[in-house]
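Quick note —
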Amino acid sequence: MEPEVRAFLQRIMLSGFIGFMWLTLNSTFGIMFDFAFFYDKISVGNIIFYLWFIASTVLMLRLIIKLWKKPAE
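Predicted structure written out below.
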């Protein structure tokens, strides 16, 4: 396989893996541990979860943008 094609496919796989892991972590903590839902009042767990959610989204997007900005090798 040509090196450019290999680098492109690795970039695609890494982007997919990062997105999948982000989705898995956030859905696990948000849905399975009930931090994403407000029941009677807002709890400390809800606040921490949503702060983490926003911060991790920004970091994930910056990482993927940085990965795709550099030229293919």
